[in-house]
Write a structure and sequence with these properties.
- The chain is 39% helix and 26% strand.
- The chain is an alpha+beta fold and 289 residues long.
- The chain has two domains: 102 residues, Homeodomain-like (Arc Repressor Mutant, subunit A, Orthogonal Bundle), CATH 1.10.10; 160 residues, Multidrug-efflux Transporter 1 Regulator Bmrr, Chain A.
- The chain has an eight-stranded antiparallel sheet with strand order 1-6-8-7-3-4-2-5.
- A hairpin with an 8-residue loop joins strand 3 and strand 4.
- Helix 4 crosses helix 6 and helix 5 packs across helix 6.
- It is elongated.
- This is AraC family transcriptional regulator.
Length: 289
């Protein structure tokens, strides 16, 4: 299943179950990937988070429903997943610009957020620096934390992890034990096709296989895999975010390779990450079709 088809199947599932308590693991299963990778790819292709999409669609449908004469505000609130009329009113007002009570009056203008349909538009003319690399197993020293996609907490928790790593000595310790200081890695273990809503994320360097891990770190073997290795040039985080978009929206839909959803690595060399000449890489495990 290609990326666009998988994301569309998940969107269709969301729409059918829009008034239910949606289980993100089940939504991701429709796209044949883990909740982490579904959330990531959805955001890249659609430009908003899964949570924002669900919220906007529910509030759109709630607005239409409130135009019906026999529908009460509390009924719409409960139907679309709000525990109280007050929380519903706050969300409704932020989205529509008027209260639910005002919406029921004749002439109340509502905002509409339409259902997504994923389309891959082939524009052409763009170039991407990438290689398909069959890499032997290699060893890394890493500090690892578990993150969760529940409530999209990982969108904040991973940047916070990097912030702590720069301030608490983690980066210094990693470099002291590195066998190759070319890159500091962001290693994301995406759980493949599992339904797990948590995943491990590490900050790592390559090290010798016999390295003894300092307290709070671990030595891990990255297995032999085939990787698509793509490079970008430009300041962080904009350049690497753009590269992720190009990979998901342009490269994979037209290539003979499919992500395994097992893991990905972002590779950052030492240097000025705000420089327009800064180069970084994304590594994604793939299989050929």
């Amino acid at each position: 299943m290609n990326l666009a088809t998988g994301i569309q199947k998940a969107i269709d599932y969301i729409e059918v179950h829009i008034t239910d308590e949606l289980d993100m693991a089940e939504v991701a299963r429709q796209a044949a990937c883990s909740p982490y990778y579904f959330q990531k790819i959805f955001g890249i292709l659609c430009g908003i988070t899964v949570g924002e999409y669900i919220r906007n669609r529910r509030l759109t449908l709630a607005g239409s429903e409130l135009k019906k004469p026999n529908v009460k505000v509390i009924d719409a609130a409960l139907k679309y997943g709000y525990e109280s009329p007050e929380s519903f009113t706050r969300a409704f007002t932020r989205f529509h610009g008027i209260t639910p009570t005002e919406a029921k009056r004749e002439g109340g203008k509502l905002r509409s957020f339409s259902r997504f349909k994923v389309q891959i538009i082939l524009k052409g003319g763009n170039s991407m620096n990438y290689n398909i690399v069959k890499k032997d197993a290699f060893t890394v020293l890493e500090k690892v934390e578990q993150h969760t996609v529940i409530g999209e907490q990982n969108l904040n928790s991973i940047p916070e992890f990097w912030g702590r790593a720069h301030s608490d000595g983690t980066i210094t310790t990693l470099l002291e034990h590195a066998s190759d200081r070319t890159y500091i890695y962001g290693t994301c273990y995406g759980n493949g096709h599992s339904n797990a809503e948590t995943f491990d994320y590490g900050i790592a360097v390559e090290c010798a296989p016999d390295t003894v891990a300092p307290e709070g770190f671990r030595v891990n073997t990255i297995p032999a895999r085939t990787w698509v290795v793509a490079e970008c040039t430009g300041p962080m985080p904009e350049a690497i975010q753009q590269l992720w978009h190009e990979l998901c929206a342009e490269f994979f839909p037209t290539s003979d390779y499919t992500p395994t959803y097992e893991m990905d690595i972002e590779a950052y060399p030492y240097g000025d990450m705000t420089s327009p000449d800064y180069k970084s890489q994304i590594w994604i495990t793939v299989v050929g079709e």
